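Researcher: For the record, we're logging two predictions in this thread. I'll number them. Prediction 1 follows.
Model: Prediction 1, sequence and structure:
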Amino acid sequence: MALGTAPTEPPSKRDRRFLYLALYGSFMAGLGLRLWNLRGQVIGGDELHAVRAALRMTLPEILTTYSLTDNSIPLTALFRLWMDWGITLSELAFRLPSILCGLIALIAMPRAMLGKVDRVAVELYGVLLALSPCMVLYSRIARSYMPMILLSFGAVLAFEAWWRTRTWRYGVFYVVLAALAVWIHLGAAPFVASPFLFAAGDLIWRRGERFARMRDLVILGAGLGLAFAAFLLPARESLEKLIANKRREQTIPLDTVWDVLRMEAGTPSHTVAILFWVAALAGLVLLLRDRPRVALYTLTLAAGHLIGMRMLSPFGLGHPLVLNRYLLPVLPFILLWVAYALRRPWVRDAGCSGRMAQRYVGTFLFLLIIWTGPFLSRGFRKSSFMHHNDFVGFFASRATLPAEVVPEIYRRLPRGPVLEAPWPTAWDFGRVFYIYQGIHGRRVMVSAVDLPGDPRIDLRNEVTPEPQAILASRARTLVVHVKLPWEEDRVQVPPGRPPTRRMRPKARQDLRRAGERLAARLAREWGPPNYADGVVRAWDLERVRAGRETSPP
């Protein structure tokens, strides 16, 4: 039985209507999660790699340079092109490729499974794709992961269609999509190459057409190699340096593996994660029985990618967030296994009542993932830092501060946004800001010390640390930290949270000086702060604005 031609009964009008309604509902739920509070999210951490590269490098330099920061050559080039065309870029512009790819995936992935598995499994698959925290978060973050997931998914399905039908149109689609996926992110290479393992195994069992199929496979592989060469060779020198610096002999701790399994399951709950993976394995076994080629193909993709990533061994596989990012291309197929398991427990030949019962299971799963996942937490719903590594790594509790070291101002802030300065853009060193936001509940804006103002970008949630820019912002209160490294030293990292970098002495000194200088300058220009203690100075910006409006020229 071919992968794309699983026999299913002709759908009734009622079944088609319910399918479209279910997929529409899944899309709307996924849309809501992906766009929730998106405009209020501070851009920081790894999201700034492409921003800095686009500001610093020319277009020819971008297209021929791989860097350790993984800024993604095509995305950086796109941002640079927009800048050269005179477009001023905001956070939303930098996140737009991920947002669009995430929304396309909600439509394309379930539709791609029609005919491969039954309709109820497709409906449940749409629900899982919409609710998966990993799929949601990486559809929001200004990184290359969601474009890579979508392109690699399309590539492997195009390969399957080509191998099944021998239609070269699909072969061209595969080559183009696979090359784009690897260009977007080099980590996609093992995944898009895995279909060749399936084809090689299929040739062993195939009795006829072996020579012709092997010839076609070689032609397709050569075409893929040429497509890779088109963007790899111009950047060969930097690519060789990247590979030499990135590859490490390393072990992957079992704790890291378990953390990744919980992230892929979409829950920090050990119990729900175990149930998720039991369902995934059960779904794979059921697929092996009912749709053997679907099961073997998806299993080959997953195993090939795992083996390939282990052989490449890029630096950071021991960190749960890094390992999970490299494994993201496999996640849509794991969700397919779970969806197939959830539609099977009731009756062998599910009639109308059986299909309704299976949909109730999907609804229960919806509630279970929402209830135990990260999205119901107040920190997610109202945070300005949903893209912080500590929020993306929802398998562990977030950092806290002892109550006695929290400045009193955060317990009695007036209504309106809070502008925090200075702000270190590395997620490892900015934990106090999301901790404070959990206390005061106001929207947070930041003033970065290492992201210089540039007329080509206009970030909604970041303000240049200049008095005029601060007053022109939407902030109601400004809080200047004169001892930010001291505050960060008192952050309590919970058990289970991976260790992070320690702040270097120069960075500590720069942050403290930046805070002291800004506070002294504002005191000279605006007068004394409304609140001051040993670590922060706070100004009511409405008072400052009102005073400047009434002062004589």
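Researcher: Logged. Prediction 2.
Model: Prediction 2, sequence and structure:
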Amino acid sequence: MAEIRTLCDLLFHVVEAHRKPDLLLVKRAGAWQRISTEEFAGAVRNLSCGLMALGVKPGEKVALLSEDRPEWAVADFAILSAGAADVPLYPTLNAKDSAYIVNDCDARLAVVSTPEQANKLLSMKGALPSLRDIVIMDPPGPGQGNLLRWDEVLARGAEYAIHRPDLHRKSAGAVKPEDLASIIYTSGTTGVPKGVMLTHRNFVENARGGMETIAVGETDLALVFLPLSHSFERLADYCYFWGGCSLAYAESLEKVADNMGEVRPTVMAAVPRFYEKVYGRVLDQAARAPYAKKALIHWSVAVARVWAERRALKRRIGPWLALKHRIADALLFRRLRERVGGRLRFFISGGAPLAKELAEFFYGCGIRICEGYGLTESAPVITINRLEEIRFGSIGKPLSNVEVALAEDGELLARGPNIMRGYYKLPEATAEVLTADGWLKTGDIAHRDEEGYLYITDRKKELLVTAGGKNVAPQPIENLLKTNKYVAQAVLVGDRRPFVTALIVPNWANVRDYARSRGVADLEPARLCNHPQVKRLFGHVLERTNAHLSRYEQVRKCRLLLRELTLEEGELTPTLKVKRRVVNEKYRETIEAMYLDGSDEAACAGQ
């Protein structure tokens, strides 16, 4: 087997080493359909030749605007083996933001999934001088007759290759490890997105390091639901391909729970918000249960965390704790494992910090979560927890081919073959984060324990500096708040303010149950927000949270928001991290009112 040096080599590795009838799975017309390795490779070959027939040349950029689906992977490998670089776009972007990226990267061609995605580019065509062709996966919509149909481009590629039988192999073989593979635009939690230039070597070496730590094989099946336009899921998928794992594409975010039960994955990548929602459903179940059952569920959660802590640290588990764990397993844990398919070997978590309490709970239930850490700029993995060496609250240890160091101010630095070439057309911005000797400044504050495990305390640029000069890391406090069953989301406020406050999205199902038990008749969130019982409830929530915090970190007040922060409203990034700038601006009046209120109690009001 030839050495894997480029993503094109990875494609041929899959073809030669992992021939199987179900390399990919997709649900269409209500049934899961299988796509074999041969079918996948043939589609890649024909599309790649079709793109070359359309004039796509090595070094050019091709935009890829699509939801997760088999065609995304086909397009990715086809573009790369034509010698071009792909530029993935989040399908949730609006027309203006999509056009900005297509124009900024000088895309020669775009591959889109649906008529709706095509319309985003068509509506901005006048602002896209370099874009000459658009290939659409699904049938075009009304007035889209000038688009190139997916199946026609594949047919054209097959015909084009008839007299050039070695075209695809030669083109892919000419790609070098240092060639540009992709430009991934950062999600932009603050300011305009920047194009991260990643080479074939960046991706391949990162996947190689990942495979050394968490191996997957031909008997594994992964459920893919995070956006492939983000580097986290994309790198995970390269690892799946490398190991010969089957990939099933979830129908949608809303259907993930159903799809898990249908395909029964053995491995899966997810972001902390996913685990929070699963945990939240356990708490919802407890809130609605009769007193005795409620007590048993909360007892089981406590047992899970105690058992997990001892097991992960390889400490002795006595017979009494072992008995309690077996009882809790029969009461709760077994059912939870069935909800995620019943045969999951492990989850991979990334994109944001995972609350220690959540990691302990899932581990105690028999569901291992390997938390990792990285940035788009590092392709993306820098560190990860190994399957048998998990430290809760930690981001693990560096991959074997990645170096890390801590700057004087605690900023985590990383260096290795996975570090980006730089930001596209932004040399000054590149110089701000890449040192002359190759260290990437991550912007995250970290510390390392005596065993070498790394812990992120917060984003360097997101630290809240109070008016009194105290530095407050918001994410750990937000995660602490979210472990309370009455809190769904939390955003800390306090930069240049006299004290720390919070915007809280309640878990309204649990709040309603609480209010009902206190005799409150009107259960509409808009009225509950201002009800004295609910104000007292969230006063207690803050008290319980503050008990774990230093005085200057304590949350003095909060305001309740009527709806969840969402990706669609522009308040979250595609990996469900809070866009603090957007939230602070959107709720500016609410925040100002909170600080003008002379009361020193944890007052709450709806917004």
